[in-house]
Amino acid sequence: MFRNSSRMKDVKRTSGPVVEKWGAEHGFVFPKEFVSFVQEFGGIHLSEDWGYQFIDEDDDLLDFGTIGTFFHFDPDVWRKSVPDEYKLRCREHWNQPDLVPFASTEINTHAVLDFRASRDAPAVYNADFFCASEADPERPRMTWLAGSFTDFLDILEPEEDYLARNPD
Amino acid sequence: MLRRFKDKLGVQRDRHGEMTVADPNAAWAVSAALGRLHRHAPEMARALFPGIHGFAAESVAQGRLGWNPAERDPAARAEILKRVYLDAEKRSFRKHEQGLHALPVVGGLLAAPQTAEDIGNVFRRARDGDAGGALESLVQAALGVGLPAGRAAGKAAGRAGKKPTAAHPQTGMRDPDGDISGIDWSGHESTERYFREVHRGGVWRTRFRKKTPTVGAEDYKGKPIATGGGRPDVSVGEVRLYKDGERAYALKRNGKRQYIDRVPSRSDPNTVWKPAGDGGHWVTRRLDNGKKLTVYYNPYNLPEFPARGAFWLPPEVIGKSKGAHRRHVMGQIKTMTESEAGRKKLRSMKFSEEQIEQMSRGVKLDELGIQIHHDYRLGRMLIVDEDFHRFAHQGGGSTW
């Protein structure tokens, strides 16, 4: 998945405590696997077409979100950072403080940690911050992807595998 | 009399269980009328016809009736009405069947909505079989609902001794269900009106002063897109934007309404809204790096992003997933990097030679700080700088 991937310009690896501190300040306990992952891969642009399949909450279409970037926690770079995306999507555009975006896809959706049910065991959802849910217009359209961040990593796959199963 | 109108206007099952439409044109007019009641006064419609609004009114309001001129054909209308009523049966048709009998009566009042009490009285009289001369005239007016609303309103209201209400107040393009005079309810009409009243105003183009380089417009724009399910086709490039009072919405291909409520916050201290003078707004945001960006939001709350380029999708791709849309655009870009003419076009989209080289190797646009944005014009994909795309907005793809 990370073959030929590149780290965003100027983005440094961040330490675990920096990640955990940001989480604690916002009332979250990030899973250890998540902390380890963003330390290593935060700010990485994926060159390979990897991502996840999902069905849009309201359009009922099977789709594939090709991950573009895993967000980072480098406090010196705001672009593509978890804090910036959180502020923009979940506080300014929406009032969804329990969602934490951590990756963007090339079809303008985000993978988010969902802390609504638990402060320390978030599920992972696909969130379309540009469309309101028909069921609850106060939140974006969301599709459950995995029960944990570890499970989320397990469902990632190359887009070509998805297309082999579901040709356009 | 009610039996006569029921027979004449009803969509019902015969003794073999087959669904029949006695008079598609009349039934069509009545269904459309109920739709307008629902649009003008949804609470009233719900109070009078619980359950019915769920199929007839919503069907009209959402555009399932009146898609295009082909539906003037009584046979086509009959088929659509059957489908609509079939939906109703699945819900609570039987329970509320009685209410259907009064549809023609209500229809006569719709062009000039009265109070709930007025309509309720007529409804009760109709239900009880007390159909006098006033009711007769209202029914006649209902049958004339296909006429311009003002005439039908005047006639119905005049006989009932009521003063016609003022036209539904609108700004920008009229609501198709609000003031129906002169509107044929087709997507083509909507598109033409939009381009006449909004697009050609070109406020934002005056500001941004550039023409967007376009790929595929000559091949695909105007081509029909099969909607399926018996609905008439729509075409690539079609715009179906309307207003329900002050609230903007788009009519999707499936006939559903998509309200357009996502706009940048007016209370955000980093965001400034200014009227553009045409019903739209200039929205300026100060980014975290201090840079200020301005985007024009049209009167339907949709952004007109200053785009590097536009790619039109083939009709057969539009109905697919957003991932398929992306794959088509990325495939186009990759192909363009393989010819000098294509590279020239990419340069006109302000991509550097280095970026074009990267794209030829399959780099993701995300890495270049670019987003592929679904425009609200059906089938039009825009290449937009990420900073602009960070403005809160309704995803155009949700309006398709």
Brief digest:
The complex is a heterodimer of chains A (168) and B (400). With 168 residues, chain A is of the alpha+beta class.
Short descriptors:
heterodimer; A: 168 residues; nine-stranded antiparallel beta sheet; 30% strand; globular; B: 400 residues; alpha+beta; four-stranded mixed beta sheet; 15 strands; disordered N terminus
Question: Secondary structure elements and their pairing?
Answer:
The complex is a heterodimer of chains A (168) and B (400).
Chain A: E1 6-7, H1 16-25, H2 32-41, E2 44-45, E3 50-55, E4 62-70, H3 82-93, E5 99-105, E6 110-114, E7 123-132, E8 140-146, H4 149-155, E9 157-158, H5 159-165
Antiparallel strand pairs in A: 1-2, 2-4, 3-4, 3-9, 4-5, 5-6, 6-7, 7-8
Chain B: H1 2-9, E1 11-13, E2 19-21, H2 24-40, H3 42-48, H4 53-61, H5 74-90, H6 97-101, H7 103-110, H8 116-127, H9 133-143, H10 149-159, H11 187-197, H12 203-208, E3 214-215, H13 217-220, E4 224-225, E5 234-235, E6 241-244, E7 247-251, E8 257-259, E9 271-275, E10 281-286, E11 292-297, E12 303-304, E13 309-312, H14 315-318, H15 322-336, H16 340-348, H17 353-360, E14 370-374, E15 380-385, H18 386-389
Parallel strand pairs in B: 3-13
Antiparallel strand pairs in B: 1-2, 4-5, 6-7, 7-8, 9-10, 10-11, 11-12, 13-15, 14-15
Helix pairs in contact in B: 2-3, 2-4, 2-5, 2-7, 4-5, 7-9, 9-10
